[in-house]
Design a protein that fits this description.
With 86 residues, this protein is of the alpha+beta class. The protein has one domain. The protein has one helix and five strands. A five-stranded antiparallel sheet has the order 3-2-1-4-5, covered by helices on one side. A hairpin with a 5-residue loop joins strand 4 and strand 5. It starts with 13 loop residues before the first strand and ends with a strand. The mean pLDDT is 92.
Amino acid sequence: MSITGRPSSKQNTFCIQYWTTENMQPKVMRRINSNGVVVSAKKYSEVFFFGSLQEAWQDARWLQEHGYQINIKKCNKGRNDSFWLV
């Protein structure tokens, strides 16, 4: 779930990459729990997708307000349920 309660998009286009400190490895958002904990995706099937940049911006702004650095990226499917970002 996103912070707005919106389900993941069926278009599988945009995702949010986030990190807290400069030496932290960036992660891709899977969901934001109701208690505010951000869960990361390990596989393509787990990635939370947004249909447009405008949809992604609401969650991205929430992450920034809670101390995260973010990038909104296009997510592409790789082999064996892996993914890569553009």
